[in-house]
Fold:
Amino acid sequence: MTEKDKSKKSNVMIAPFEAVGVVCAQSIGEPGTQMTMRTFHYAGVAEHVPTGLPRLIEIVDAKKEPKKAIIDMHLKSSYARSSTEAEKVAKDIASVFVSDVASVEDDLENLVIAVRFNEKDGKAQGITFHMLKKALETVAPDTKMDEHQNIITLKPSKEKTSAKGEKKKLTAKAVRKLTQKVKDAIVRGVKGISRAVVIKGDNEYFVRAGGFNVLGASIHAGVDANRIYTNNIKEMEKVYGIEAARAAIIKEIHDVMEMQKLSVDIRHIMLIADAMTYSGTVKSIGRHGLSGEKVGVLGRAAFEETIKHLINASATAEEEKLIGVTENIIVGQTVPVGTGKIKLIMKGKKKE
Structure:
């Protein structure tokens, strides 16, 4: 290792007992307050994707799913080269519901459901009458169907046998329930993925769509299962594991900062990602996550729900060891970080 490399290495090293957490919080919190509330238009997907502060809050709160989820699916080389092949994949993946290509009406007097196929909508979506019929057979397998021109009439049986063997009469409520089920049935595509568009990337085409369903998308023959990414961090954790979720947190926070033209050192973002994922699951930073699990009573009380924490600690005679930064500030002691962590002992002169 040359002298230059050594000096580079020593420059990036952190001094012992440095308050990295506080520096990290400041480094992300300060630009976070300056973030403009501009929304950014993701090319093609006709939807505003939350960026800026709303997206940052979404990430650190470890929301179950983002307000506007997006999934990027890279294709196998035979499909990625031509836009027409990629268009076919996009068409196959985007979900088309019965309600998109047909009008569904229930007749509660005669207890039947009429599904009228709209040929114009069907042609635009690439859906045939036969495909619609197949979807209805899947969603209501035990129901009698009558076809007349472009209308399918579903006639549920007047009596139903329950699991216990009791015979139940068909009610209007059950028909209305079935109508809703029919409307939401998927004729073609992957559940949870909508509005797929083809985008030209670096020397290849890929598909970007609204929603998320990594496992559903990976089944398609044209999709490269190793290169699917969604901005839903919980979905990344569920399918690919905690390391992928950590990488997704870093990427998402970095993208938000980049979009706002704010430069934050990647190590601060990595520290946040590590703190959120070190336990093996993605945890939020709020009172239900990291802040609520602090060791000290005063540290927890300083954040939110002060009285609750103090009463619980009093009731169980909890001990406060004054480990963290907050606790020591509250009691007016030197904070045990940086120079506050080091105790100096001076040698006295020997008496002759």
